[in-house]
Amino acid sequence: AEAKEHYPTLDEVLGEKIQDQSVRELTKELLQASSQVGEALRVNLATVAASQNSVFGDVQLALDVIADNILWEAARACSLIKEAASEEEPRLVETNPNGRFTVCWDPLDGSSIVDNNWAVGTIIGVWDKTTGMLGATGRDQVTAMVVMYGPRTTALIACDDGVYEFTCITEDRWIASKEKIRISKVAMMMMMEMMEMMMMMMIVEMMMEDDGDGDVDDDDDGDDDDEISESKIFSPANLRACADLEGYEKLVSFWMHNRYTLRYTGGLVPDVYQQFTKEMGIFTNPSTPKSPAKLRLAFEVAPYALLVEKAGGLTSDGVTGRSLLDSKIEAVDQVAMNEPKWALTARAENGRMLRF
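RESULT FIELD:
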């Protein structure tokens, strides 16, 4: 991006782009807590926590505990938060009976790669008390945010009219580094539990349209604005599933043989975040009994799905065609792979099907 003479402040953007004052105030308080997490990452070592309390069986690092404690302190101090839940403590805890919002977070996504000093992040979803989180869907969120801790601390925020990126200058000062991010028409984040039949469909040429005369041709309406280019960035998680799913192996091979660009770190936050900075890309995460995926619906999938769709991307369960935002949250610790079998789908655009 080209440098600007002036970057709007957090207050300037939120004041204009989030109408609800309480959502604005909550967003700022959560960002302040996240900036504290970022500072903690810079001064603490990636050591194993003395006490292991993860109900999912993940190895907790001291950094996980520190990040989680910072967010719990913020939640208990914030009069706007009625109840909260953390991936480290997957149960709803009432923090303020007179509060308005339910806040759900993954305090440090990517702790398995943080010892490499790679980018990691915090994922946060926010629901109003009128819906709560349990029994609601990702679409019911009033906002969501992903904060990435790398060379810089940056945050993606779901505002009323789209997604904005903010960069942390100091703990209490953020500027809008990217405004109203738009993912290109073929750049989509897909969480998927692959079905072999669906995978085979994805490696079929689908960029052309059959006009009914037996010939296959492209859209020749003369409007160059309708031209759509493929996303060439792919981020394939859980490659071990290739041993179980022939279709997934064929899809990954297709990407490689056609010289797509592989960008994958093993951290959900940076691997999907790149779709907002590059404005294209695809994230895949198949699940099989032998190689299960462990993405949690409330803590990771729903917040990120809201951001992706707010930025013009698509998510799909790959079976019913529903958006991931329509998956119902029935338990705080609900694992996403227990939802409908998620797979890649194609998107219809201007009478054509897109391959990505």
